[in-house]
Amino acid sequence: MSAAHPLELVEAAAAAGFEHCGIRVAAPTAAELVAEIAGDERLLRELRRRLADTGVEVLDVETFRLISSPDLDAMAASLEAGRRLGARYAVASGPDPEPERLSDHLAQLCERAAELEMMVAFEFHSCYAVDTLDRALVLIGRCGAPNLVLLVDLLHLVRTGGGPPDLARVDPRLIPYVQVCDAVRDGPVGIEARRVEARTDRRLLGEGELDLAGLLGALPVGIPFSVETPTMRLRDLPFIDQARVVAETTRAFLDSLPTDSRTGDR
């Protein structure tokens, strides 16, 4: 299963009828970044043109990993690229195990984003130091940035013991959108196995065993879905067809839910 080039991603999102897409402008390693967007003026112009032509909007840009010594200047350039594409949010995560240092770097990232009128969506990750909803909320409170919100990936929530009651107690203002997928009930054991599941073995909505109706019903009403379903099952399909399958499956599942459990999609 290979990642899509940003231009291909926009075209696939439009063909599948999604209103938004997310674009990767920063990655932990060069191998994970299909195209270097920051600094590529030609690619930025072409992406802006394709977005305008298709009507697809960029919901977020990713991934700003706050390691022990992040390159905040490079992140600032990626934020600028994301802002030029119209992104509302920059997705950050926290592998750094030192809480005070992580909080300081997150605050600095938020300051850079605020200068561009962008929000930072912090995603807790079952394989990182900030791995649970509660740890993410503590970090957000410690950071205290007004443009910092919480990004919940339902897979990571469930794999760290979270459920509908945990979502229901979070201030709705902290959850402006959510990453959704389905999965098998009993998750893999160990960090590396969870990482593999998150990257290649998620299930499409309605094709797993999670309590999606309960989880979605506990979220703020009307927020967008970011459909996060990387799966090897679709790897042999052209990317545009993968997007169509994901869209069709997602909409069929949403149509099966009670009206008050539905939100938008991406």
From TrEMBL:
Superkingdom of the organism of origin: Bacteria
Pfam families xref list: AP_endonuc_2 (PF01261)
Gene3D superfamilies (UniProt xref): Divalent-metal-dependent TIM barrel enzymes (3.20.20.150)
InterPro entries: IolE/XylAMocC-like, Xyl_isomerase-like_sf, Xyl_isomerase-like_TIM-brl
Domain Xylose isomerase-like TIM barrel: 10-241
PANTHER family: BLL3656 PROTEIN, HYDROXYPYRUVATE ISOMERASE
Name of the protein in its database record: TIM barrel protein
Organism: Prauserella cavernicola
